[in-house]
Prior knowledge:
36% strand, 11 strands, six-stranded mixed beta sheet, 3 helices
Amino acid sequence: MKKDSLQGTTGQRVIIFPALTPRVSDRRVYFLFSVLQVKDIIRAASVHPVPFSPSFLEGIAPWREFVVPVISLEACLGMENTGTRQHRRFMVVRTAGKEPDHGEGLLCMLNVDPAIRMASLPIKCTPVKVNGGIPKRDLVRGLYEWEEGLLVVVHMENIVGGEIEIDLQKGPNI
């Protein structure tokens, strides 16, 4: 069995929540974030749509003294979204902050399933390759199989930092 980074770290806390997608390769999909990436989890946010924005950008929302983009991870990764956003939470996350002009990193707000939980590493899991189901794999840092399904570690620097390719053939998202 191949050793991976999630098993090599001890004691670090992570946040896991289910994706609002159908199963991928017959497994439920979950997103995983380090507690250090998460700045806040809130019940409600006033999301304002942005005309001509890509489909993954649900809008912008005020948070503390900032205005941050609200992003759908499922749409970013090109996954089908089958869940309801009626009962939701918003998670404010930051990138790693390695950009010289951005201090602590760039912020964004994620529209997430309310079934958020915290866990400690190590988590018993195995790195996997999945064919299909997650079309934009360049936005994924790691993909792991664990007892409950697939854990997806997204590449927030690429998502928030503008590395997403927008399909201009589909036209603006109004």
